[in-house]
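Input structure tokens:
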């Protein structure tokens, strides 16, 4: 809860990504219970916050392997809670993605590939993380697949 408003990062992402004003578990406005989310990876519509996970587009373990291992605790916390790298997604898809790179996993909804690849690249650039040759190729192909849209 970086801004001390009682809403942790999960709540803030759920609020940001909901298509309607969210409802809270109690009157305090801290924990989100309901809203309306369309999973960016699947197109699946969800209304219960408990059906959602907050996904790290660039997984924490992947960041660790590509330059984040030497980060300070503070920088690791910043990365883990950066809204640029976070999305509300259905829990089953998040679990299937796990800590895989785009070469190993792509969103089931092909129409989201461009956005996913662009966000992946932005996060990597923002944090100075390395991008391997096959990773770069995969991201390029993902973006090229919808260049005409």
């Amino acid at each position: 809860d970086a801004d001390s408003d009682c809403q942790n990062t999960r709540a803030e992402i759920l609020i940001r990504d909901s298509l309607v004003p969210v409802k809270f578990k109690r009157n305090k406005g801290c924990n989100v219970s309901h809203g309306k989310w369309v999973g960016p990876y699947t197109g699946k519509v969800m209304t219960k916050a408990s059906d959602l996970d907050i996904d790290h587009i660039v997984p924490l373990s992947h960041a660790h392997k590509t330059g984040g291992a030497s980060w300070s605790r503070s920088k690791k916390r910043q990365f883990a809670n950066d809204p640029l790298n976070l999305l509300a997604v259905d829990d089953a898809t998040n679990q299937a993605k796990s800590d895989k790179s785009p070469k190993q996993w792509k969103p089931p909804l092909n129409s989201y590939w461009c956005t996913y690849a662009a966000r992946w690249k932005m996060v990597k650039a923002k944090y100075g993380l390395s991008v391997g040759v096959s990773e770069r190729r995969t991201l390029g192909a993902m973006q090229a697949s919808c260049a005409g849209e």
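The chain has six helices and five strands. The helical segments are 9-17, 60-65, 73-80, 91-97, 113-126, 133-144.
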